[in-house]
Every structure is written in C-alpha cells, then in structure tokens.
Write a structure and sequence with these properties.
The complex is a heterodimer of chains A (335) and B (316).
Chain A lengths: L6 E12 L2 E13 L4 E5 L6 H9 L7 E9 L2 E2 L5 H7 L4 E4 L13 H11 L5 H14 L5 H4 L9 H14 L4 E5 L7 H18 L2 E6 L2 H5 L4 E6 L2 E7 H7 L3 H8 L40 H5 L4 E3 L6 E3 L16
Helix pairs in contact in A: 3-4, 3-6, 4-6, 6-7
Chain B lengths: L1 H28 L4 H6 L5 H11 L5 H13 L13 H36 L4 H14 L3 H15 L17 H35 L2 H8 L4 H13 L1 H17 L1 H7 L4 H10 L3 H29 L7
Helix pairs in contact in B: 1-14, 5-6, 5-8, 5-14, 6-8, 7-8, 8-10, 8-11, 9-10, 11-14, 12-13, 13-14
Bound molecules: adenosine-5'-triphosphate, iron/sulfur cluster (SF4) and magnesium ion (MG).
C-alpha cells in the first residue's frame, strides 16, 4: 500500500463527440501523486484542466464522452468504474472544490443541510451529530458565527463565504485527495489569498493530497511541490515546482511564466504576452499544438508531436523538439 | 418575507377593489334601469320602490357602490327574482362542486405529471421522453369537449358504467361513492389538460436544472440518483410549475363550465350559463364577483408558495 502512490494516472484521454468531430480535451496525460503532496495543474483557459479534474473523479457524464487509459485512486480503478463503485470513492476518497462558488451550491437549500446531507447519507451520522459536525466544519473553514450561517441560504452569503461552504462540503468526508478547480475564480484579491491559505493549512491539518488547478502561476509557486503545465489537453512540462520555474525547457512554460498574471489581475484575463490563441481542439494538426504560436517552431514541430522527455533533474519532463537551454538563459537559442 | 407578503397583500386588496367595482358596474352596463335589470320587467311598482330605497338607486353612483359593497361585505348578494333564493345560497351549493372537481383533477394531474417529468428529464430525448412529449403534444391539441365526448361514449355508453354519464350528478353529502363516480369523467377531462401543461413545464425546467453545476456537485458528494432528483433538482425546478398551476387552476375555476354544461353538473359554470339564459343578472353578478375574487386568491396563494419554494424571490 505504502509503496503505491495515492493517485496514479496513465495515458489518460478524454474525447468528446462534438458536431465538429472528436475533441480530445485530455490527451495522453500521465502522472503520480503521493499522499500529502500538492500538485499544481496550470494552463490557459480551455487547456482541459476542468475536464481532466472531472475525469480523474469519474464525474464526466457518460453521453458523448470516451475516456481511455487508467486512473488508479487509492487502489481503485476509476476509468470504467460503475456509478455505484464511484459513489463509494466520492467524498470519502476524493472530493472536489468547484470552479464557481456562485453556481456550485444548491440555491434553494440551506447551506447547513448541504453539508450534513453528506454526513448523514454517506457517513451514517444521525441528524444531531451531523449538525454538530457541519457547524464544526463551517467553523474550520473560517466562517464566523457558524451556528447561524448553518441556516443561511447561499444567496445570503458572499462569494468568498460560499466558496468556504463548498470547501466545508468537500472536507465533510475527510477525503484523501482534494481537487480544487480554480477555487478562487471570481473572488476578489484578498479573498483569493485567504481561500488559498485556508486550503493550504487544511491540507497540512487533515493530511490530504491536493491537486490545485489554476491558470495563475502566482498561485502555485509557493503552494505546490510539483507542477503540471498543460497546453491544449497535453502535458507540456512537469516536474518539481522549483525546477519548472527555474529550469523549464518548453517554450510554452516560458511564455506562461513571462506573462504570468499577478494575483491582482482579474480572473480569466487572456495572457496578453503570449501572441495568438489556444487552438480549437476539434481541429488540431498532428504536430505540437503550440507550434502556431511558438517562435521556435519548425516543420518537424508542425508534423510530429514531441514526446515527453526527461530533463536533467529527476521527475522533470518536457515535450519539445527544440527545448530551451537549461538554467533559464533567456537569450539561449534553442538547440 | 413579512414585507414581501405585506406588499403582495396590498396588491391583492387593490385588485379585489377593482374587481368589485367591475362587478358592481355590470348591472349598470345592461340596458334599462337597474331596478328592471334586477327585478325583471314584471315587477310591481311597490317592489321597485322598495329596491330603490334599499340600494339607494337615485343617489350618485359612488354612494350606490358604497351601499352595495356594504351589503356584499355582510354576505348579502341580493335575492334572485327568478328563483327567489338569495344569490349567496345558490353560490354556496354550486361552489363546492367546482372545488371538488378542481381538487380531484389537480391531484390526478400532479400525480401523473411529476413522476413522469422526473423520469423523462433524466434522459432528454430518450425513448420515454420522446414518447411522453409526443403524447402530451397530441393531448394538448384535442379540445376538452372532444375528450369528454369520447370519454362518455367509451366509459358510460360502451362500457356501460352507470353514474358516469350526463345528468348523473349526485351531491357529496347524499352518497360520496356515487358522487365520485359522477365526477370521474369531468375530473379526468380537466386533469388531462392540466397534466399536459404541468408535464411540459416541469420537464423543461428539470432538464435545465440538471445541467447546473450544483447537480454535478451533488453527484460528487456520492448521493444516489433518486436523492439528487428529488432533493436537489425538483425544488428549484418547480417554481415555474407553481406559477403555471396558479394560472391554470384559476382558469379552471373561471372556465370549467364546458364540462359542467356538457354533463349537467350544477357547479358555478353551469349555474352561470343558466343565469344568463334566464336573465338572472343578480346571480350573474354574484358569480362573476366570487369567481374573479377566487381566481385572484388562487394566484396569490400560488405566488406565496413560489416564494416558499425559492426563498430568493421574497428577498429582492
Ligand atoms: N461537454 C463538453 N463537450 C464538448 N467539449 C467540451 C465539453 N467540456 C469541455 N469541452 C472542451 O474541452 C476543452 C477544455 O475545457 P476545460 O473546461 O477543461 O478548460 P479549462 O482548462 O478548465 O479552462 P478554464 O480555465 O476556462 O476553466 C475546451 O475546448 C472545451 O470547449
Ligand atoms: S515542439 Fe516546436 S513548436 Fe512545440 S514548443 Fe517546442 S519548439 Fe515550439
Ligand atoms: Mg476550468
């Protein structure tokens, strides 16, 4: 058990059947995550982060979606599992904090009931115990006067408070893995930092692993031990956070770093420093998806997809035919 | 919430006032002087004089209205010169029949529409959904009088079920089983129309709700499909349903007379038609007043229910 990672993803593909043809939103993604580890997944809007997160949980609706590859979570295979098998994993092994707290809570159910529902239905608590625990959880995620807030409807709470409620729901089952999908989108700057710090301290307190999804490198720099940079559904680069920041080899990672929005930017701002736009995934060519926007692109890039290759340091991988020189010499020509 | 209800109540009082003025003025809209309209042409001069004094008919309209509304508020809607019964007494016997018809038909309609819409919405455009949608569309295009005729031909005549045909009405008080039998066909007819509306409204809203992020969130809690449908999807999807039901039930109260007339069920609709054909205008006035106020009250009630189902409504 202990030599096995908590989460092990191999050659994962998620393909949507769309009117414009098959759309591969997650393309050959593989990685491992150990207990107590925090992995950051970064990429622009539309790079497939949310689809990846939902595929990891097995939450993707079944119609018009094909998932191949393997996701092993705490010894259970997620890909191809039945709904009732997945239900056993949800909340107790893995839980998710959704992107938008304005839409992820039931608008006509009191927040307390949305928390203690998990405790009662999934974890067999009686009404009174569930209520006590729900108030504890509200308290834990930093909601003042938790006992009163227990009876509030979501529309009576601010965005930051709602996201804290969503986090409380996710924590209710004491999951071993928490997937936070851009948990601070749409919240204002000070609240963003508070929520991120909260997640950080909860991870330490509860001994969870966390996957922190964001398009904002500022968020993951200090809060993750490893990074996965995604571009158009594929892994562009992955490795220990420090290595990816300082020794990145893939031009997209560089572009992302240089254009990195500060915490003060509005969410979903286009990364202005990277010219061009991410490709339409329904009609991408065979080569490197970044080629149309890459200053180093050659015919090889346009015709063949670069494989993931190891860099100098262990665990650091990148996908590029003409990698940047290590140690981040900005003037260095590609090899 | 209290402020919301107070505001709605104020509107309600305003609307009821307008209705009362309209019903009052009805008598004055008709040709001839009000005493003739109320008492008929054959009334004796003494009776006319008495009515003039009682209603203050030679005083200004505003005073006449005040006198009239004073009587109405004391439960006095006048005495019909044709049946020589107080209008209120006639309404008191007719109204419960409508209420019973509406109650039965609505229970049937909801009992059919809610579970079927829940099933259909789980797989939009699935076989069940397509069948039900096509079926409900077909039913929607058949007018109620055709449905009732078909039902009478089939149930009362072909199957020979007694107590279901025209003129078989028996009151609830005398024999409740026969009463239910006699109301079966009109209830079913009214239920069909309501069912179609409720099914379509609820199905559409459920399909929208089921796409919402909070449903995915509910799934990610590991809840069962049943619980997600009933606890998470149904309530937010039922707001439009309640609004529609309010309007529809009001419509049944005001417009249920087709089935009542066809089957001679002595509810308000039937009584109204009879009153019009015998020029019993005082009774017409009373029924118009009661039905209009009833429609407004029903809508008020359903608005109130809506604000309970979706607490956001009353906090704006
Ligand atoms: N149900 C679906 N059917 C078809 N295409 C989909 C579906 N869901 C997502 N996609 C496509 O998959 C791609 C990745 O979307 P995804 O939501 O994962 O991006 P993201 O990285 O989370 O972006 P953001 O930062 O804006 O949240 C997009 O091109 C999107 O259009
Ligand atoms: S493979 Fe080519 S196009 Fe893609 S990032 Fe590397 S250099 Fe640029
Ligand atoms: Mg996303």
């Amino acid at each position: 058990m202990s030599d096995q990672p908590l989460l092990s993803v191999r050659n994962l593909n998620t393909t949507f059947a769309t009117p414009a043809g098959p759309l591969r939103a997650v393309d050959d993604v593989s990685f491992d995550l150990d207990a107590n580890e925090t992995l950051g997944i970064v990429g622009e809007s539309g790079s497939g982060k949310t689809v990846l997160a939902r595929t990891l949980m097995g939450l993707q609706p079944r119609q018009n979606v094909a998932v191949t590859g393997s996701v092993r979570l705490a010894g259970h295979e997620v890909v191809g599992a039945s709904t009732s098998q997945l239900r056993e994993l949800w909340s107790s092994e893995v839980a998710m904090v959704f992107q938008d707290p304005m839409t992820s809570l039931n608008p006509v159910m009191r927040v307390g009931r949305q928390i203690d529902e998990v405790l009662r239905v999934r974890h067999g608590m009686d009404r009174a115990a569930a209520r006590t625990r729900a108030i504890e959880l509200l308290d834990l995620v930093g909601i003042p006067s938790a006992a009163q807030r227990y009876r509030a409807y979501p529309f009576e709470l601010s965005g930051g408070m709602r996201q804290r409620v969503v986090i409380a729901i996710a924590l209710a089952g004491q999951p071993r893995l928490l997937i936070a999908d851009e948990p601070t989108t749409g919240l204002d700057v000070t609240i963003q930092a508070q929520i991120l710090d909260l997640l950080d301290s909860l991870r330490a307190q509860m001994g969870m692993s966390v996957i922190m999804i964001t398009h904002d490198l500022g968020v993951v720099a200090t809060r993750t031990s490893r990074l996965l940079v995604m571009y158009a559904g594929r892994m562009a680069e992955t490795g220990p956070t420090g290595d990816v920041f300082r020794q990145h080899r893939m031009p997209y990672t560089r572009a992302l770093l240089e254009s990195s929005p500060k915490l003060s930017n509005a969410p979903h701002t286009r990364l202005a420093a990277i010219p061009g736009q991410p490709p339409n995934l329904a009609r991408v060519g065979p080569g490197c998806h970044f080629a149309p926007r890459c200053g180093y692109a050659t015919d090889q890039c346009r015709n063949d997809a670069p494989p993931l290759e190891p860099a100098d340091r262990p665990g650091h991988l990148f996908a590029c035919w003409h990698p940047l020189a290590p140690l981040s010499e900005t003037t260095g020509a590609p090899s | 919430m209290a402020r919301y209800v107070a505001r709605r109540l104020a509107t309600l009082v305003g609307i009821v006032f307008v209705i009362s003025v309209g019903s009052f003025y009805l008598i004055h809209l008709l040709p001839g002087d009000p005493a003739t309209v109320i008492l008929g042409t054959g009334a004796s001069p003494a009776a006319r004089a008495a009515l003039y004094r009682q209603l203050g008919l030679n005083r200004p309209l505003v005073t006449q209205y005040l006198v009239w509304i004073g009587h109405v508020l004391h439960g006095n809607l006048g005495v019909s010169f044709i049946s020589e019964t107080p209008v209120l007494a006639t309404i008191r016997t007719a109204l419960p029949i409508d209420l019973e018809l509406i109650l039965i038909s609505q229970v049937l309609a909801f009992a059919g529409a809610i579970p079927l819409a829940m099933r259909a919405a789980r797989r939009p455009n699935g076989i069940l959904d397509r069948t039900l949608s096509a079926g409900s569309f077909t039913l929607l295009s058949i007018p109620p009088f055709i449905i009732i005729v078909l039902l009478v031909l089939l149930v009362s005549i072909k199957w020979g079920l007694a107590n279901t045909g025209p003129s078989s009405y028996v009151s609830l008080g005398s024999d409740w089983i026969v009463n239910l039998e006699s109301l079966a066909l009109p209830s079913i007819t009214l239920a069909v129309g309501s069912f179609v509306i409720y099914f379509r409204v609820l199905r559409a809203d459920l399909i929208t709700t089921l796409q919402e992020e909070f449903i995915t969130m509910a799934r990610s809690k590991g809840l069962r499909q049943r619980r997600i449908m009933w606890r998470h999807a149904f309530r937010p999807s039922s707001v439009a349903l309640l609004g529609t039901a309010g309007v529809n039930i009001g419509g049944l109260l005001a417009g249920g007379f087709v089935v009542e007339y066809l089957l001679s069920i002595p509810g308000l609709g039937y009584t109204l038609i009879a009153a019009i054909s015998s020029s019993d205008y005082l009774l017409v006035q009373g029924i118009v007043l009661v039905v209009s106020v009833g429609v407004v009250l029903i809508n008020f009630l359903f608005d109130f229910l809506t604000s309970i189902v979706d607490p956001r409504i009353s906090r704006e």
